[in-house]
Amino acid sequence: MRRTAVLSCVIVLLLQITAGASPTHLRKANPTFDFRPPGSSRQNTLYWFDDIESGENGWTHRDLTADVEPRFHVDTYLALPDGSFSYWCGVIDPAFAGGDGYGNAWDQRLELPPVHLGGTPVEEMSWGQLKSMFRTEDETEDGRDGRYPGLPMLTFAYRHDSELNCDFTRVQADSLGTWVDLNDGYTGSSGGWQEVGDAGLSLAGFGDPVRVRFRFLSDGAWSDEDGLYVSDGGAFHVDDIRVYDFATGEVYFYDDCEDGFGLCEATIPPAAGDWWHIIDRSCPAISDPHSWWCGDDADTGLIPPGLHNELSTPIVDISIAQTCTANFAIHFAVPAVDNDYVEFRGTSDGENYYGITSCWGDFAQCDGWDRTSWVVGYNIGQFSVPPFEGGGLKFIFHTTDNGCGPAAAGDAGVMIDNVYLAGDTFHQEIRNLWRTD
Q1: How many domains does one find in the chain?
Q2: Which among 245, 267, 289 is the end of a domain?
Q3: Is the pLDDT reported for residue 36 higher than 50?
Q4: Nearby residues of 336 by Cβ (< 8 Å), 6 or more positions away
Q5: Are residues 287 and 241 in the same domain?
Q6: Mind listing the pLDDT tens digit for each residue in 89-123?
Q7: Whole domain around residue 386: which residue ranges?
Q8: What's the pTM value of the predicted model, to 2 decimals?
Q9: DSSP secondary structure string, 381-420?
């Protein structure tokens, strides 16, 4: 995703309606109704306006985490060359660019079973056991009793291809209920299969049994799903997963999934819930008292982790439009200490949505609309050429592992109000030239 600095990220507008014109909900294209944007001397056609004062009116909202499926699985696709099967985090999907790869806003995990480091090694004749044959009964190893492994390590083979510096695969170990990163995250392309360097990744200090997982995270755009990033068999493959003791050579876990199934479990986070709703009070509405809010009515100022919550306008008839811009007012109260963000997507054909921009950071407090909104329009006509069909917007709010909030005033979340589509209209004669039917 193309990230921009918070203060340079354009978030939008205070709506001002021409004097004497009352708001009309779900207005279809009407070339006789002229709308003049603030500061503009040129009249535009207002195709649709909603100030959220009379209900949902065709808007929809949903929890995008509710129907997520595990994507790590054992597969022969691009498997490690010296075997038949490997774990793959990806899908074969004809709708994806290239027909395979990964999608937007994925949070996929592959978890090893708890590995007991002091138990019986899974390899009967490991180097450590051979060495123990030549050791006296009371002899110790590096100050240990000869049994407890003091230097557990993790090794594996892997390949990956995902959007550079935006989509990552992290290797993690559990530390008293908190998952700790063991690497900086695999991102970009590995150029094929690789082996973990040196002796592997250290698992020292993570307890016995030790818990390990691979976790792939993608952001809200630029993947095989939207075709903006076309991977080579992305997102992540892994094979020959081994946990062993560096000092003794004893292997306590090994999984090459060569029987067509593996010992590891594919998991996904629990559904985060649908938090978009119309609120009935002047704060945070800009046109009192209603607005859309992805937030908490209980005023705890907290929003749960792992949120991918979508709010969509109705599809509006813009078939007479020569140009079309989408405008709205936003109140954005999201602490900047994390990577929570809201993304905006638009359509001009009524079906395919494309990313417009995204915003991160903390600005605005309750009743802060005047200080944080600017007059601007997002060009949704850029996604196709006239004649257009249906115009619309999606707002998708994403939160990370620790959720969102509280913000400075105790609130947190995203508020949307006063949404409209406007633009230049074809004269009928020109419109007819564009039509082929």
Answers
A1: 2
A2: 267
A3: no
A4: 6, 360, 361, 362
A5: no
A6: 999 999 998 899 999 989 999 999 999 987 777 75
A7: 6-65+272-434
A8: 0.75
A9: GGGSPSSP-EEEEEEEEE--TT-B---TTS--EEEEEEEE
